[in-house]
Amino acid sequence: MEKVAFIINPFSAKKNYQPFLNELKAKVENPLYYISESIPGTNEFIRKNFDVADIFVAIGGDGTISTVAGNIINSEKILAIFPAGSGNGFSNETQFSKNLDELLDKIKVKNSRKIDTFTVNGKLSINVSGTGFDGKVVKEFEKTDRGFKNYIKVSLQTFFSYKPIKLEFSDEKLAQHNGKYLMVNIANTRQFGNNAYIAPMASKSDGLVDMVLVKKFPLTYSPLFAFRMFTKKLKNDDYITYLPISETEFSVNTKNWHLDGEFNRIESPIRIKVQPASLRILI
Predict the structure, then answer these.
(1) Is the four-CA dihedral 223, 225, 229, 231 of positive or negative sign?
(2) Strand 4-8 with 247-252, pairing
(3) Can the peptide bond before residue 40 be classed as cis, meaning omega within 30 degrees of 0?
(4) Nearest to 239 by CA among 192, 196, 186, 182
(5) Is the dihedral of CA 19, 24, 27, 31 positive or negative?
(6) How far apart are CA 174 and CA 269, in angstroms?
(7) Which residues touch 183 (CB under 8 Å, ≥6 apart)?
(8) What's the pLDDT tens digit per position in 212-242?
(9) Cα torsion angle, 268, 271, 272, 276, sign
(10) At a CB cut-off of 8 Å and minimum separation 6, what does 220 contact?
(11) pTM
(12) Which of 60, 95, 135, 237 suits a disulfide with 131, CB 3.0-4.6 Å?
């Protein structure tokens, strides 16, 4: 597999990447791989091997995948994934499993297709990005040991104290949606991760993203919200509004964002722009 490069995030999967690496070495002769020490290091490895490899495999969570994707976007290089994150939203949506044999079989066949990505003030996102409540949750979550249980714990602690953010669109046609929201999400795919479907109708290949506006809801609505989110049944109602967009601009009174689950500070005005068919992925 001289035309495949593997990029391993050693901090994913509870920092236990060695079993994957051992299995990889047992099944692939002299694999080309890099244990990432930093984002710049990953970028340098991909640049160095860009003309050598046809397929770049990200071993990690959505943040790792997004970093690798950012280096091969708008090219004919192919992104493949071995999920090893806490949520694995993008890998769930692109049918990659924690089965190395299955991945190696896909690599041998080498079928691929192009999907959309989008940017938030020029910064790449491939899955779901957002601000407000979930931006704050990600900020606090990064202080923990991660894991689904810690995510739920941080979410509950944050919910009761979090004050809604103010949103104002630049486009007068969307002014009716100006107001206060618990969170604002931009969804290229359907889920955050852990099968939590924030945008059940989103498609990663329609040239659009779903902008999801969620008003702060009463505690009595929480069970219904959670049930609908985990059963792919969230829809427009008194608290949730879906806006399919290709690009838009708005301002929010917070700088706390997450891009594919990674905390970022981004200043308003916020410009969202879809990049149609910009990333080739293995299928």
Answers:
(1) positive
(2) unpaired
(3) no
(4) 182
(5) negative
(6) 15
(7) 130, 131, 132, 133, 134, 135, 165, 212, 214
(8) 999 999 888 988 988 999 999 999 999 999 9
(9) negative
(10) none
(11) 0.89
(12) 135
